[in-house]
Write a structure and sequence with these properties.
Elements: H1 2-23, H2 29-36, H3 42-48, H4 53-57, H5 66-82, H6 85-92, H7 97-105, H8 124-135, H9 139-146, H10 153-160, H11 163-174, E1 180-183, E2 199-207, E3 210-225, E4 232-240, E5 251-260, E6 266-268, E7 281-292, H12 306-317, H13 321-343, E8 345-346, E9 349-350, H14 355-383, H15 389-414, H16 416-419, H17 428-439, H18 444-459, H19 464-472, H20 476-506, H21 521-545, H22 553-578, H23 586-610, H24 614-624, H25 636-644, H26 651-656, H27 668-681, H28 683-691, H29 697-702, H30 708-725, H31 732-735, H32 745-758
Parallel strand pairs: 1-4, 2-4
Antiparallel strand pairs: 2-3, 3-7, 4-5, 6-7, 8-9
């Protein structure tokens, strides 16, 4: 046996090993650190081509403790009641002072900080639920709360800080004595953070009256959320040691340190205004700022490890903050748009009866269902201590992109109601905020084209990372032995995947593995089919293109789209199972599956049409897509049923849009909720009037069609609808200071014309 393995290694594997070492592109330190950051999870199962569905269904649901639920029902609701989004972004351009004080006092900035350091010690799911609920009331407040609990000094200190650093800084961050921000983005380096030119030179200097070895920092950062009000800046920079004070190397790499903003040389700039959103955001500079080495997070031994630290922390943060805001946005769009479509009439009937409205409304409903399903599943992983790097990228990209579609659909259905700004416009500011989520924490274009598949193909593949590590081993003999072991396992895996993909594709997944999931069982079979096809096509693309695949961004993006759909559809199935297979929700699940399957099949067709090796492409087409892309998307029946979920008060509607911030005030959202309930309650009365071809309730009472009490109830409903349909208008001087002199716009323009005529 040993001699056979030696023969295989020396005669068969060795030439392949030598060839692969020659063509494998060099991996930069930042690329390697990004690959090593975070964990693989369900994405690895999908990459096998044969996912174990029992593993998915056995994952414990993310739940809240009694303490966490009490925080949502108490301080979170209290905070939401303080927030008036119109005043925040139009009048104050900031949160009210009482909100800032309350946020600090109730430790909203310390949700993830352990109780031993004075924080709340909440789970990732509780963090997500808090952000989600606040997002449904105020974007500015949600961003303010989410940032200190996401990528920033708090999380980095918890993961990598020394005991002394944790004891010094975490209590101050938890109770709001210090407000944190994190400086990563530079004018020269946005998504390409490795290109930053911010520097820290190791040298001797005087700090607090004593000479110490430290870092002299120079930087320029921008787009820094909470930067204008921060007292503690987490800073990423490149460290250098020209005098070799701490070692033999001169270039030490990206490093992260804590910078109190009151240090000499720190300059906090003015505020940015991102898409008219007024959360605190702005630039800052450092000019010859000196700090001791113990201000480096993790101490001296962590110098040069900043990129890996950031990527590890980002794997968790990207899976919580923006996905939570996006899920809230989609659920909010579903609840408000369904209610508005139900109460708004055109041509004598509710606009919800028009199929042209039903189609985008169904898309909003299904998006809300799917995003929250994926959010919960990702939080379940984070609750279990897993930090899924690839899945976090999927969540950030697709949550924000799909929220954009949902909010655009909501704008279209609302029409002028959502276009005219003012206190009664409950959706316009959400529409303006969408580009912010698309852009921050890694631009979506980069994430889709390079990161999801580029990182996932290496991290989540069963053997590829082992092969790459073997090829990069400086000990050639050791590397050859490791490569031989991984490579032939890879060959066996690929052969099995080929047979599996062929059988499942030609049988339309009829015999693919699936759990007993009732009506949803066929969906699992199709996902098993697509998973096998994905694994095979990914292997063949990697084999034929090698390192050049990362330069084929459009191909990489399509593979990433398939992997993302596999994850998001898995999450939808998991949610339907966890919620007890609710029959009223099945149409939404059908919509998600039909749309996802259509996307997957189109992406496969595009990959096969554009794979450079045409011989391999033809073979793959015969194996994985012999009959072409056949799924057409959801049927009209499914669209109709899906839209109907938000058109009437029901348990299904509440499951779809749970725990949004409800404040009983005179805001546009509160008016809409009241009108929706009144219209639903008087539906039977309205139907009797329509059947009698009557529109005036008083006439209907006189003719005995309805009772006086029913007529009065109907009048109240009509008045409530009229209040919702109203849009805001403003005196000219309220919108522009140039009119304040006269207070009369007509007189203003008359005087202006006279002045021009005279000149």
């Amino acid at each position: 046996m040993r001699s056979a393995m030696s023969f295989r290694r020396d005669k068969l594997t060795k030439p392949i090993f030598s060839w692969a070492r020659g063509v494998l592109p060099a991996m930069s330190d930042t690329e390697r650190e990004a690959l090593e950051a975070g964990d693989v999870w369900w994405d690895a199962d999908l990459f096998t081509g044969n996912p174990d569905w029992s593993k998915l269904l056995e994952i414990p649901q993310a739940t809240l403790t009694a303490e966490e639920q009490a925080f949502l029902n108490g301080p979170v609701d209290e905070l939401c009641a303080m927030l008036d989004e119109w005043k925040i972004f139009w009048e104050w351009r900031d949160l009210p002072q009482e909100a800032w004080t309350f946020i600090k006092r109730e430790k909203f900035f310390g949700m993830i900080i352990p109780k031993e350091f004075g924080g709340l010690g909440f789970s990732p799911y509780a963090h997500s639920e808090v952000v989600r609920k606040i997002s449904s009331r105020s974007i500015a407040a949600a961003v303010t709360v989410m940032v200190p609990n996401s990528l920033g000094p708090g999380e980095l200190l918890m993961r990598f800080g020394t005991k002394e650093q944790q004891e010094r800084w975490l209590p101050r961050l938890a109770d709001g004595r210090d407000i944190p921000c994190f400086g990563l983005t530079s004018p020269e380096a946005g998504s390409d953070a490795a290109s930053m030119v911010d520097t820290g030179i190791i040298c001797k200097g005087v700090f607090e009256g004593r000479e110490v070895t430290g870092l002299r920092l120079n930087w320029h950062k921008r787009y820094i959320t909470l930067g204008p009000v921060a007292t503690l800046l987490g800073l990423a920079f490149k460290a250098y040691d020209p005098d070799h004070l701490v070692g033999d190397q001169e270039e030490l790499g990206i490093t992260v340190a804590l910078i109190p903003t009151n240090l000499p040389g720190v300059e906090i700039g003015h505020r940015h205004l991102p898409s008219m959103q007024v959360f605190q955001n702005g630039p800052n500079w450092g000019r010859d700022v000196f700090i001791p080495l113990d201000y480096v997070i993790g101490g001296q031994e962590r110098i040069g490890q900043g990129w890996k630290m950031l990527m590890t922390a980002l794997a968790a943060g990207r899976g919580i903050s923006l996905p939570s805001l996006s899920a809230a946005g989609a659920a909010y769009a579903a609840r408000t748009t369904g209610a508005y479509a139900r109460i708004r009439e055109q041509f004598g009937i509710s606009i919800s009866k028009f199929e042209g409205v039903e189609e985008p409304l169904a898309r909003i409903v299904a998006t809300a269902y799917q995003l929250d399903a994926a959010r919960r599943l990702t939080c379940a992983a984070l609750n279990a201590g897993v930090h899924p790097a690839v899945i976090s990228g999927i969540m950030k990209l697709h949550a924000t992109e799909r929220m954009r579609v949902a909010v655009d659909d909501a704008m279209d259905i609302h029409g002028g109601k959502a276009v005219i700004d003012g206190p009664q416009n409950y959706i316009g500011n959400l529409h303006r905020a969408v580009p912010v989520g698309i852009t921050v924490e890694g631009a979506n274009i980069l994430t889709r084209n390079l990161i999801i598949f580029g990182q996932g193909a290496i991290r989540a593949h069963p053997y590829l990372l082992d092969e790459m590590n073997a090829l990069a081993d400086t000990d050639r003999e050791r590397g050859l032995t490791a490569f031989d072991k991984a490579f032939w396992k890879h060959v066996g895996h690929s052969f099995q995947t080929l047979l599996r993909a062929f059988g499942r594709s030609w049988s339309f997944g009829a015999f693919a593995l699936a759990p007993d999931a009732g009506d949803a069982t066929p969906f699992y079979r199709q996902l098993s089919r697509y998973s096998a096809a994905f694994a095979l096509c990914a292997d063949m693309a990697l084999l034929t293109l090698g390192g050049a695949l990362k330069r084929k961004e459009m191909l990489s993006a399509r593979f990433g789209d398939i992997l993302s759909e596999l994850y998001l559809l898995s999450a939808a199935l998991k949610r339907w199972q966890d919620e007890g297979r609710q029959k009223d929700d099945f149409a939404v699940l059908e919509w998600c599956m039909a749309t996802g399957f259509k996307t997957i099949e189109i992406k496969f067709a595009e990959i096969l049409a554009n794979l450079p090796n045409r011989f391999v492409a033809v073979i793959l087409k015969l194996v994985v897509q012999p009959f072409g892309a056949r799924v057409l998307g959801p049927s009209d029946r499914v669209v109709h049923q899906c839209a109907g979920i938000v058109l009437e008060p029901s348990a299904a509607r509440e499951r779809l849009t749970p725990d949004l911030a409800h404040v009983d005030d005179d805001s546009g959202f509160a008016r809409l909720e009241r009108a929706f309930k009144l219209v639903a309650a008087t539906d039977a009365v309205a139907k009797r009037m329509r059947a009698a071809h009557l529109r005036d309730w008083k006439e209907a009472v006189a003719k005995g069609v309805i009772t006086q009490a029913e007529g009065e109830q109907l009048a109240v409903a009509h008045a409530a609808v009229a209040k919702v349909i109203e849009v805001d208008d403003f005196a000219p001087e309220a919108l522009s200071p140039i009119y304040k002199k006269t207070g009369d716009v007509h007189q203003f323009f008359q005087e202006l014309g006279e002045q021009r005529a005279a000149s």
